[in-house]
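So, is this right?
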Amino acid sequence: MKKFLLIVVATIMATGIAKAQNEDLKHEIGISYGVGLSTISDGIGHGIGSGIFDSMTGHKWDNDRRFGTLAAEYFYHLDNPKVAVGGIATFAQYGEDVLKKSNDEKIGKRTRNYISLMPSMKYYWLNKNYYGLYTKLAAGAMLLLDNQKDYTDNEKSNSSKAYFAFQVSAIGFEFGAKFRGFIEVGVGEQGIVLGGLKMKF
């Protein structure tokens, strides 16, 4: 009986220590990879531009290549255990070939790189020691770097534009202690579905 009581007391103390340690972990860094709809601010314009490009030049864009979205995050957990604030940096890439419409001859290529920086916040619906359920909102700026190469005359052209960037992750789930895995479902620069790893310290 004494042995049983000692085990119970030790378990309660260990749980209390673990809880206290987790509550002291205010900082969080993470990396993620996302797929699906991203770079929305540029997407509609690109679709319209593609139609104009096809009709006016006799060329077309084809053979899409999407890299997906890599992101790095930092959050600071406030004394209010439901709120964390921080920022997100993302990188995504989109490539395609330029073809002649008449015979599908490849005459060039185009690569578009998207880099965004967004202040962000998370609201936790559940925030436990070993798991959490949250919603994440972010808004900021995206830089589009457009690089094109023409094979016929071996010329290169570069341009850049700035766009509004955002991420709305309606549902995010994280699991673990100091090191946590997480998955999110939403829309924006990080993608529709994303997953990653984070560390709290």
